[in-house]
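User: Working on a comparison across species. This one is Jmjc domain-containing protein 7-like from Stylonychia lemnae. Can you predict its structure so I can line it up against the others?
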Amino acid sequence: MSNKPSDSEFNFLEHSMEFLKSLSKLTLIYAVISSFGISVIYFIEEGMNSGTQLNNAFKAYEGYGSVNQFFIDYPQLYQFDDQVQICDHTTLTPENFVKQYVNKQRPCLFKGYAKIWPAFEKWTNQSYLNETSGQEIIYAEKQKDNRFAYFTAGAKRVYMTYSQFLDTFQDPNRTYHYYFSFEDPPGPLKEDIIDIPIVQDYFELEQLTFWHGFGTLTRPHTDAMENIICVFEGYKNFTIVPPHHTPFVYNGYEGLPRNYSPLEFVDPDYTKYPLFKNAKIMSAFVDQGDCLYMPSFWWHQVESSKGVTLALSHWYKVQHEFTQEIIAHYQDKFL
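Assistant: Here's the predicted structure for Jmjc domain-containing protein 7-like from Stylonychia lemnae:
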């Protein structure tokens, strides 16, 4: 599924701008964003690239060079919660989850959702992991510190059995840190997971990532897919910044890829990175048994429990599709 509007939808956008350009800037921007079904991330992605139809239209009518600047100047257009919302998986319907959170790109914490999985009872038992999947060959990350990233100097990936990993990654006398992050749970452990009920009829699963580590701390980054991550042992503490505050996180600085930030969200150095004072920051504590919906392109740094942490990410294609019903509403109202 593509989140890019069609040529006919762009034609409607241009007609709407012609009609509305005499109105206030706030009305214009709100109408444009609403007409795209609040596809906020599409605006952010396209607005970063010069020469796109969207960027050219915004430049022509409003003089802005970046859609990000729209959201900075008019934060009321973007529904931003002060805290990550708690979603009750027993009462929230799939339709309302998509409408209230996915379409609006709002993170959502499901307390206790992972407890319905067979994995919740089984994966905290290391003997069970060893007996069922210990002989599976895995591909583990190995480096001197716990700041795992593929571009870290000295980072390596090594083959070992899952049993060897279980014996090594939490050894107090280890000389290296090890982290298992791969697309699937090893071997028969795949039988302990389920399709997430609230999204199985709406989301298209792209891949899984099995996270097994000890006291890890990620570098701040974004991901290009929707993520629902469930924790089965330990916890993961997310420090989160919305995508329209990308100008404040110094992404791509100091030789990093554009989807990484050099600063520490958990302990920022405001002297070195003063713009980060302007960033909106939220946190989400994902405890054992919880699941977090993390929309695509949201900045996040993840601090795992000081001991063992085991989690699983479900990665889905970006979901914010163009909304035909809203387009029809604006056609009737303005054209």
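For your comparison, note: The two ends are 29 Å apart (CA to CA).

User: Helpful, thanks.
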